[in-house]
## 1
Amino acid sequence: MDWAQEEWATAELGDWHLNRRLIKVAQQLGDKPSQSIPLACGGWADTAGAYRLLSNDSFDWRDVLEPHARCTMQRMAAEKLVLCHSAPATLPPG
């Protein structure tokens, strides 16, 4: 099982096709994080599939982020010390 499949194995986007597409898109974008979606996906069919997934209104970003956040928390729980970096622009004032 590759890293994206492990990370999003519990995703529930309402349809197994969407869950499968999420894993594929995550793998493609994760393998080439500095590339555009078309370059990371490597072909028209996968690019169109990625854009369809990202524009789908049947789920929201929280549904995508939740399995990843859960896996991250599990990895952190296994460590004695975890340093979490946050960019200042994302922190609330005060």
## 2
Amino acid sequence: MNAQVLTPGVIATDFHDGMATADQERLKSMAMSPADVVTASLAALAAGEVVCAPSLEDATAIDRLGEAQRVLMGAAGKMGLASRYGPEARLDRDSR
């Protein structure tokens, strides 16, 4: 069994038909066709990609995002100030 996170953004469907005309036109100009979404999803599955963002050229951006989230979550679990906020940093800033 394979699972995938698919994040296509705006898809050209009738979902937005009830919106104001200006909004509809703006969304249509940035919408991806359903066929392109399916093509990207199937290609990503075949390539073993767990996260598929069909319009994202640089797939390594997804990995970098995951690493940034891990760093932030790790820091959130620590007690105390980051060194850039401590007394030594304040003295350094004051001496400039």
## 3
Amino acid sequence: MKCQNHPNKEATKLCIGCGNLFCDDCITVVKNKNYCKDCIVEQLEKKEKEIEKEKEEKKEEKPQIIIQQQQQQQVVTKEGFLDQTCKVCCAIIVIIIIIWVIAVIIAGSAPR
């Protein structure tokens, strides 16, 4: 049998991609498997498309994650704000009670 690309050379290897016979010069071994140059190009193009698809899927995922994180931060901020407001209100109430108690004591000890 002759090489698919070189009719003057004997075919020594079979490409597992296309099934054609080739000489040693036309075959590339990848992970112990024989590929012709056309099949290698085809495999690389297929892999490039898979990588591009994965990149596009990741681009679509990122905005959703960012939106979810922003929403969680807003909830935490609102809860934090309410906690701070409660603390301030409680402090004001305590101060008013202390002032009232002082006023009662002063009013009670004042001569009549």
## 4
Amino acid sequence: MTLKTQMAADISNVFLNTNDFAETITYTASGEGAASISAVVKYENDEADPGSTAKKAILRVKQSDISEPTYRDSVVIDSKTWVVLNWKSSFGGLEWTIDLQNDERPVI
């Protein structure tokens, strides 16, 4: 077994296991139907307002679950809708790290 094969197995069986670290989300890519997939979600709170709810999050998913993220794809986590801002490939092409935002009000 190669290191890449072992990492792919660990991503699926450990990190993206909903009994351990992951949760089920709904990802809707532009022009495609919604798909329920496993993801690790890290919420980022506004440091200037510690009591605020998260407006940004980082999502980690298997690349095989999403062909390629697109700006403004829709993600539903616990009935709250988020949009994709940025993304990058990680773990040698095995995983997407996706930046999300749920509050797009302009900052003045």
